[in-house]
Write a structure and sequence with these properties.
45 residues, rod-shaped, mainly alpha
Length: 45
């Protein structure tokens, strides 16, 4: 595998990990009845 391809895969894996954490935060905030719809939406994008 070429180095740029490895770099892209690492970047994608890191981004997916961060996205998963952001989604968990959004689920938690909604579950807590948080009144911050803009912040919750930010974590879902």
């Amino acid at each position: 595998m070429k180095q740029p391809e490895q770099d892209r895969r690492k970047l994608l894996a890191d981004w997916l990990s961060k996205a998963g954490t952001d989604f968990e935060v959004a689920v938690y905030l909604v579950g807590e009845g948080a009144i911050f719809p803009s912040a919750i939406a930010f974590h879902c994008h």
